[in-house]
């Protein structure tokens, strides 16, 4: 069974929107695009590279797919991620796209949750959900996420799309590994572990 792994960059207050650049995603008037690079370090890059070691595909929503497809095919080949991103298979969930131009891309058909269940049961390595906040929340609601790999950076944005937004499904998490880089970024790997429990002091 393949694992669905949500790989996301977050601010300390949980914002995931537009980490990569000022023009990446200005939806809802977001003005903080490009917040990640100033607070990243070499250890963050090494951790992200490790996220792909046992994965051979990505699962993307429309917006993230379009951002990636406009960048990676012509990205600097000296960047070690360029070949990896272009060669990996991309599964795309979209209600509006009818064709995909980026190499190794497949448009999912029908209900997204059903399509992802079929992917999980197919042959292959793990599948990384990168960015794609709306898609990630759909997968969380349907209990399809097997693992979270998060970098939590030392910056507060105050506005923007959050991975765990209001209404997120209450879920207990089992920490697999948690470390802090020299620049203060928390690199955490967590697995869903049933429902939260509650107690008092």
TrEMBL record:
Domain called Bacterial bifunctional deaminase-reductase C-terminal: residue spans: 2-186
Pfam family, one: RibD_C
Cross-referenced InterPro entries: DHFR-like_dom_sf, RibDG_C, Riboflavin_Biosynth_HTPR
Domain of life, source organism: Bacteria
Protein name in UniProt: Dihydrofolate reductase family protein
Organism (species): Streptomyces noboritoensis
